[in-house]
Amino acid sequence: MAALQKVRSAAILLGPAGFGDWQTEEAQLCLTQGVKRRIPVIPVLLAGGPSPEALPEFLRERTCLDLRNDGTGSGLDRLAREILGSALESTPAPPPEEKRPSYGLRHHNLPFLPLEDLFKGRDDALRTLEANLQGSKTATAITQTTLYGLGGIGKTRLAVEYAWRSGDRYEAVLFVVAESPEAFRSNLADLTRLGLSGLSPVPSHAQEEEVSAVLSWLRENTRWLLILDNVDTEEAAEAVRRILPQLQGGHVLMTSRRRNWPASIRKQPLDELGPEEATAYLLQRTEGLRTPAKDDSEQACTLARILDGLPLALEQAAAYIAHHQLTFSEYLEIWEKERESVLEWHDKNQMDYPASVAATWQTTFRQLSPTAATILRLTAYLAPDPIPLDMFEEGADIIEEGVNLLSEESGQQAKFKPVREGIAELAAYSLATREDRTFTVHRMVQEVLRARILAKWRQEWIELALRLVDDFSSPESWDVRTWPVWNLLRPHAAVMVRYADESRIAQPTSQIMNDLGQYLKAKGLYAEAEPLIRRACAIYEDASASSPEVATCLIYLAELLYDTNRLSEAEPLMRQALRIDEELLGKNHPSVARDLSNLAWLLKTTNRLAEAEPLIVRALKIDEESLGTDHPKVAIRLNNLAHLLQTTNRLVEAEPLIRRALKIDEDSFGQYHPEVAIDLNNLARLLQGTNRLADAEPLMRRAVEIFEASLGPDHPNTRKARHNLKVLLAERNPEEPQQE
Question: What's the 3-state SS for 211-240?
Answer without folding.
Answer: HHHHHHHHHHCCCEEEEEECCCCHHHHHHH
